Amino acid sequence: MHNHLIFWIIFSVIIIVMFYIDLYITDHRKGKIGIKSSLIWSGVWISTALIFNLIILFFLENGKQKALEFLAGYLVEKSLSVDNLFVFLMIFNVMGIKDENQPHVLKWGIISAIAMRILFILAGIALINLFHPIIYFFGALLLYAAYHMAFGEEAQIDLENNRIVKFVSKAFRILPKYEGRKFFLNKEGKLYFTPLFLALILIEAADVVFNIDSVPAVIAITTDSFIVITSNIFAILGLRALYFALAGIVDVFVYLKYGVSVILAFVGLKMLVADYFEISTAISLGIIILCIAVSIILSLMKKKRVA
Fold first, then answer.
1. Are 210 and 120 in contact (CB under 8 A)?
2. DSSP assignment of 232-275, as one string?
3. Mean pLDDT of 67-81
4. Backbone angles phi, psi at 259, to 5 degrees
5. Which domain, by its residues, includes 258?
6. CA–CA separation, 260 vs 296, rounded Å?
7. Which run of H or of E encompasses 184?
8. Mean pLDDT throughout 164-179?
9. In 159-190, which positions are buried (b, 16+ CB within 10 angstroms) versus exposed (e)?
C-alpha cells in the first residue's frame, strides 16, 4: 500500500462521510429519486472527487503526475460505469423492479461492488508484479472488450434461459410476486428469496464481468494501488444518483459506448506497447477526455436532428 498513510486516512474519512450522507441523509432512502435531485447529487460526488484530486496535486509527493493518473483513472472508470448502468436499467426493467425499490438494490450492489473491485485491483497488480508478461494478456483482453462493445450485439436478458436465474431458482425458494424492499422473507417457517434478491444477484454478476474490463483499463494507466483504488471507489460511489439521472435520458447517449470502446482500445494498446514505447499520462488523459467529449457531442447532435 502507499507509504503516505495520511492520504489513506483523508480518503477514508471523505468516503465514509459522503457514503453516510448518500445512504441516510439524502432523499434516496425515501424511494424514487427525481432527475433534478439525482443531477445535483451526481454533481456533488463528481466535485468531491475533483477536490480530492486537488489534494493529491498539491500535497502528495510527485503530485502533478499522481493527479493526472487519478483523473485519467477516474474518467475511465466513470465512463465505463455509465455504460454498465445501462445494464442495470435493463435488469430492473426485465425483472419489473419498481422505481421506489431500485435505490435499495443499488445500495447493496454498490457496497459489494466496492469490496469486489478492491480484490480485483489488488489481484491484478499482484499478478503484474509477479509475472510481468501478463500485461500482454490484459492488453489483448481490453482490445477484445473494445471490439465487443463497439460491434457486438446488445446485451439481452432472457430470464427463462438465464443460467444464473435457473441456478438461483433451483437452489432457493423464490417468491414469484412481491411488493416491498426485503431480500428475504419468512413465510410459514420457510425462508423465501424475493425478486429483489434475484435482481441483486444479476447486478453482482454484471459487475464481475465489468471488473474484467475496468480493472485492467485503470491498471494500464498506473499500477500505484493508492491511485487505482481511490479513483475506482470515487467512480463507483454516487452511481445511484447517476443511475437515476441517466435513466430518464438513456436514449440520448447513443454514441457513448463507441467512445468508451475507443478508450478501451487505447488503454489496451498502451498496455501492449508499454515495454517498448511509453505514452505519457498527460497524453492518455487528453485522449480519454476527447473520446468522452466527442461521443457526447455526437449523441446530442443526433438527438437534436431527430427532435
1. no
2. HHHHHTTHHHHHHHHHTTTTT-TTHHHHHHHHHHHHHHHHHTTT
3. 92
4. -65, -45
5. 5-306
6. 11
7. strand 184-187
8. 80
9. eeebeebeebeeeeebbeebeeeebeeeeeee
Between CA 230 and CA 120 the distance in angstroms is 14
Question: 120: which residues sit within 8 A by CB, 6+ positions away?
Answer: 211, 215
**Cα 145–Cα 77–Cα 116 angle in degrees, nearest 5:** 85
pLDDT digits (tens, 9 = 90+) for 212-221: 888 899 999 9
Q: What is the DSSP string of 280-304?
A: PHHHHHHHHHHHHHHHHHHHHHHHH
Residues 223, 229, 231, 234, Cα dihedral to 10°: 170
Write the pLDDT tens digit of every residue in 138-156: 999 999 999 988 887 766 6
Contact 265, 107 (CB under 8 A): no
Can you read off the three cell numbers belonging to residue 282?
498527460
Lowest model confidence (mean pLDDT) among 116-125, 172-181, 267-276: 172-181
Distances, alpha carbon 54 to alpha carbons 6, 64, 115, 267, in Å: 15, 9, 26, 24
Cell of residue 75, nine digits: 474518467
Q: How far apart are CA 60 and CA 182, in angstroms?
A: 44
Q: Which of 84, 86, 87, 103 is nearest to 196 (CA)?
A: 103
- Measure the CA–CA gap between 210 and 188, rounded to whole angstroms: 39
Cα separation, 292 vs 7, in Å, equals 29
Give me the number of domains the chain comprises: 1
Q: What are phi and psi of 191, to 5 degrees?
A: -90, 125
- Asked if residue 39 has pLDDT above 50, the reply is yes
Q: What is the pLDDT of residue 2?
A: 46
**193: DSSP letter:** E
Give the C-alpha separation, 307 to 300, whole Å: 10
pLDDT class of 306 with cuts at 50, 70, 90: low
| Average pLDDT over every residue of 49-61 | 93
